[in-house]
Amino acid sequence: MRIVGLETEYGIADPDRPGANPILMSSRLVSACRDALGGLTARWDYGGEDPLQDQRGMRRERRYATGDLLTDSPEYDEAARGVTLRRRRGSWEDPAHLNAVLPNGARFYVDHAHPEYSGPEVRSARDAVRWDAAGDVIALNAAQRYQEIEGERVALYKNNVDGKGASYGTHENYLIRRDLDFDALAVALIPHLVTRQIYTGSGRVGLGLHGETPGFQLSQRADYIETEVGLETTLRRPIVNTRDEPHALRKRWRRLHIIIGDANCLEVPTLLKLGTTSLILAAIEAGDERLEALELVEPVSDVRTVSRDLALTARLRLRSGEEATALEIQRALLEIGRTYAADAADAEVVARWEGVLDRLGRDVSEAAREVEWVAKLQLLGRMRSKNAGPGGEPLAWDDARLAAMDLQWSRLGDGLAWRLASAGAADRLTTDDEVAQAVAQAPTDTRARLRGASVVSRSDIVDAAGWSTVVLDRDTRHGNLEVVHLDDPHESTNALLDSLIGG
Amino acid sequence: MPQVNASGQPYEDDAPEPAAAPAAQASTDALDDLLDEIDGSLQTNAEQFVRSFVQKGGE
Question: Chain A residues with CB inside 8 Å of B26's CB?
Answer without folding.
Answer: 424
